[in-house]
User: What shape does this take?
Amino acid sequence: MKIFNKAVLSLALVGSFLMGACDSALQVDPRQSIDANGALNTPDAMDAALNSVYARLRSVRNYGRDLLALSDALADVGQTTSNSGRLIGENNNQPNAHFQAGFWQNSYFGINEANLIIDGLSGVEGASAAQLARWEGEAKFLRALYYFDLVKVYSYIPTAIYQPGVVDQGGIPLVTEGVITSDAAFNRQPARATIDEVYAQIYTDLEDAKRLLTSRGVQYASSASASALLSRVALYKGDWNKAVEEATTALASNVGVVLSGSAYVNGWRAPVNPESMFEVRFALAEESIGVNESLQSSYTALLNLTNKNSQGGWGDFIPNATVRGFFGLAPLQLGSPASDNNNWDVTRNSDIRAQLYTTGNTVRGAGRQIENTKFMSKSGFAYADNVPVIRKSEMHLNRAEANYQLKNESAALTELNAFKALRGLTPVTLTGQALLDEILLERFKEFAFEGHRWFDLKRYGKPVIKTTPAVNLQFDDFKILPPIPQREVDGNPNLNQNRGY
Amino acid sequence: MRKVLLLGLMLFLGSAIAFAQSRVITGIVTSTEDGMGVPGATVLVKGTTIGTATDIDGKYSITVPAGNNVLVFSFVGLLSREVTIGSRTTIDVALESDVTALGEVIVTGYGTQPKREVTGAVSSVKGEAIQNLPLQSFDRALQGRAAGVQVRSSNGLPGGAVNIRIRGVGSINAGNEPLFIVDGVQLNNQSNAAFTQSNPLAFLNPNDIESMEILKDAASAAIYGSQAANGVVIITTKKGKQGKAKFEFNAFAGETQPMKYLDVLGGSEWFEMRRDAYINSGNTLPEANTLSNMGRLPSNWQQLSREELNQIGLDLPTYDWQREVMGSGRLQNYELSVSGGDDKTTFFLSGSYNYQESSFKPVDFERGTVRIALSHQANSKLNIETNMNLSTFQQNVPFAVSGSFLGSPAFSSSAILAHNPIYNEDGTFNTSIGGVLGQNVVLVNEYNSGLQRTNTAVGNMIGTYKILPNLSFRSLFGLDYRLLQGDSYRDPRTPDGAGVRGRSSVQQDWRTRFITTQTLNWNKSYNNVHNLSAILGFEFVSETREGISGAGIGFPTFQFRTIQSAATPESITGFWTGYRRMGFFGSVNYDYKKKYLATVTARYDGSSRFGENNRYGLFPSIRLGWSIVEEDFLKESNSVSELKLRASYGLTGNDQIGNFDARGLYGGGGNYSGSAGILPTSLANLNLGWETNTTLNLGLDYGFFGNRVTGSLDVFDRRTKDLLLNQPILWTNGFSDIANNVGELQNKGIEFEVTTVNIDKGGFRWNTSFNFSKIKNQVVSLYDDLEFLPANPGIAVGQPVGRDGTGANFVQEYAGVNPATGRPMWYDINRNITYLPLAADRIYYGSNLATIFGGLNNTFSFKGFELTAFFVYEYGAVFTDGQYSFLRENGTRLTLNALREVNDRSWTTPGQITDIPRNLTTNAGNETRGASRNTGSASLLKGDFIRLSQLTVGYSFQPSLVSKIGLSRARVYLQGLNLWTYADYPGYDPEFTGAGTGQIPLTKNYTFGIQIGF
Assistant: This one.
């Protein structure tokens, strides 16, 4: 018994010694992460944190695909092939086949990271004034871009607000403070701000970005790209003077060029489109979206333009009869045998943009189709292209449209005809509604497969007239707006769902 | 383990022979089973502590003091016999085997106990029960063997994952895996294979297992503290046995076969189906469009009439893609073991080779193992022991473990349109495949390659020092080391490899787990009525895991298949992670005359995984037992041979979360334009602590008619509080969720086990064992008075959470098709018919967790012949099967093949009552712009099944016969696995986990085997 007691005692002693050492024995620190407290205290960390906010734009749910291909599928741009079955529901405007929850999630994550950067500016040790200005300006530009993308998707656009009078279909939750603690994460339950409040915040951020930024390459925000984005935001808001003013500023900048003729087509074949004022950069092979959901794969079954027989992506979403009509596109056999896809091309009219369409291949189920080729792996690896967010050409179309709305019809017509000349088209002589329709038609042609059309229809409250399937989506249909992710509505008593969901 | 005990007992008794008196009795102890001598049997003079042990040949010699006239012969696993000496000097006895297991010793937490004294809910599965089953990991072999233990294979990958749930599902986001312990070494059974599933438990040759004990109630498991919430499975491997070296050779070989092929439409049948769908959709060129969908539209089609086009469709051939890629596979197993030793040292050595192919070539499993168990009695006080398991296995990987990948044979072979030839006429692969599955999966399967390797070393060193006869100190140091390696090559000749000109991916993953356990064992008996024993211990576990992986693209030709030939590195990444755990524990056992039993245990555990404010937890337990059979009024009973009431209550913890889940971190990621990014990855929760499990268990052990009927009945109420829930965060706040201790789950159930000897007459014996479990699983509460989890409404108060905590089925109820129009209908929340069900119309519809399950085993033996028929059953699971869901679309969304039974049920005529809608094509206007035909409960299936899991016919040759050729034993057998399944199930097989899409189904196995001892 004595020995037993001794043993117990010694074990207890060893135990208490070990217990004392417990806290250190149980201390294991991660090696590939750092504590969130003070993570952004250095200039290098600030740069790295900002990179992540840019990188989120690459998501399939944002500029990786959906803001271009999915929104065009919702509109009247194309038809689906059923090759992989993707975008069929969206093209059919089926309920819930719309912008997805991941778009909301990724955008708000980007906004939170931008907010944390803005909140953390004062805590960076050893930062120069120029660095501080750049971080703040870029973070604010990105925050504005995410908010603008969210509000144009989830809400009506100020120029055409449908009022069913049933539920609040305001803007979107507007948060401008970063969340990094669990308290804040648990307790903040933001309601939908009004549409005006959201646009006002976007204006404020873009004005700050304009003031704070210079330019360090079109893959980053610049003063000129802030002006260009502001021009578009103003156009959506119906703030026509502002749209003209900012378009003029952007056009005067040395960021991006407006191209014409074959240079315009070649611009689409270059890794960086010279027209870009701001583009989302895909720099590494691992950033490729891949064969299923990349823009290239969505639009064409071709792997490249040099050998049409090589199996590429799916070619799920192709121009419909309307778009084919714009450019006089019809299949054209160039040689024999007909089974060789390289022996096929399309007929084209004088519009230089017709060069951006050709026949695909017979690898996929739907067979050889006429496809759009704006995205052809120009980054140097498969299924990755830098995605232009704002091309400088848009500024002419923004200004023409805004001038029309300001009753400056002659300025609008002049600008439109000048633009048409850049694309190989003859001038028109139009006034009134016909002139506006022509400006919007030109916008349709210019930005087909770039994701503008859905919102251009939406901001004028126009119905979506589909050719294939031949059904229409009226502006009063609830499916104009996507559902807000149900988890957000369920978890936030202050957040109202969109009508119909 | 019992051999170790035996050894101790022998030594103890051997030293006790110090008396010199009277007569010497000699003899031999044999077993009635084989007539061979029993080494190590105990011979005791009744009423004294005088005894001896038999030698290697079963012989003994004992000095019996005057006045004593009865000898007691006993051996573990054999029935004890008392023999009156009378005037004899030679007494030979034959001991019968104890067919009913109550005499056995059960391994419990940090010790052993006679089964009669166990007061917790512990199930024991002997190694013999699972011997020679062609299963790669022992967890799979536990299916149906023990009440309350639910086992489901994830798929038919040899060496693949197995889903094991002890007493339901106790956690939503933390793990639901039990703690596996092999020879005192706590394993990490998390699989991290990148290219297939590599079950870490497959490192151990199941035939090396002596016994498996499953600690089910919290009180039994509580001594394992923070790791024990989901139960504990203790595996004891075979140990050396004193005696001359005994060799055992074991071999079996056979075949695996698919259990089922899906009956899909042939080429012309699919044409007709699709053509009619076009007609229904108002299409004016149904034949041409269908042929175009199938890639068979002639270029001159505009010159052909509809009738001519129709004829082309009707003439389309049919190719059986399933039988091309699925089929029988080989399996074989060889092993040799030798055990023996003298009175100081015993050893057990074994080596094994196992090979098994799945029904989808080239997916297979190949393993080699080496095992050493050594025990040495250094002196009267010190025993040292070591157990080493070395193992390597490699698996040819499938295209994907699951998923609707075009190149995946498991997905595409049943879904590809059957008119597509597999080969061209010249024997080359046909690469022009019509339909959405535009890849020749036979080609893809042939050209791709990949291998996953798992090298494992699990071992320990144990020293036991007898401080006093009743006090010993045991020191264990153990290691669980695993290296995972894998590579996978997407051949540039396949569509997935063509775009990138080949892709090679590689993985390396090291896991090192170190454990040490120091325990003091003490026992004392007071007045021969108060028996007291105690354990005190300390344990420390440290685990680190590290890995690198990468991929390269751009290969010169397909012959270059390793990553160094890649032109472009596509990705390269790595990780490091680790955690530590430390605990003190103690247990006190008390019994009064083996009649009233009590055990109290406690453990104090700390883990690095939890928040700074909440790292330590206390896990107490109490178990009480009343062995009624020891009471006087039952002691003499002939009919009641065992009766014990048990009650237990205990607290255990669950720490199966990420190593750094409590920390607020910024991690690397979000690189942009060639420069590195960082982003916030998790929110800090300084208060994050254990998920606690309490189980109240009431049990009854019974035995009747000389233990010809034995078994147990348990009822339990298991509550999990402070769930480690990933509490959703609003995305607008920049995060998805945070690990938090909120909410409560309940599993309550009843378990019943019975084993009977139905007939034991004239050498014919029929044994039956049956077990039944019924478990009700439900969420008791969430947080903030929420009725359901915002991010997953399937997690709802009052509803089960499903096998993996993913939630109950929460769907719109399908109402069949409108008999007038053939359009699919659902019920809205007000029970009105709707064509467009909304999220608000969803109702709860059970879960994928079976509520009733168990097993039934029958063994017949007669003169060396034996027949074993083992059934398992499951009832009450409801789930979707992704593969079936794709096929249930009947080709209306994508140009996939369809099941004949589904197509036959398609609505065609007004008034027809059916559940399959009218066939339409994708762009058929408003009708297809409603909800998909698989929406809601339309695609839910019942997963009930009864399966003849094992059927074995064996013959053991008479020992006297085989001894002539130098063998001690010889047995041959034929065995079949999964030979018959009763299930009303339209997919491949109801036993799987996950989405069910493109998964390799379980197989039937046939084997022939031979066991030789010499």
Summary: The two ends of chain A are 75 Å apart (CA to CA). The first strand of chain A starts at residue 33 and ends at 35. The longest helix of chain A spans residues 129-154. Chain A has 19 helices and eleven strands.
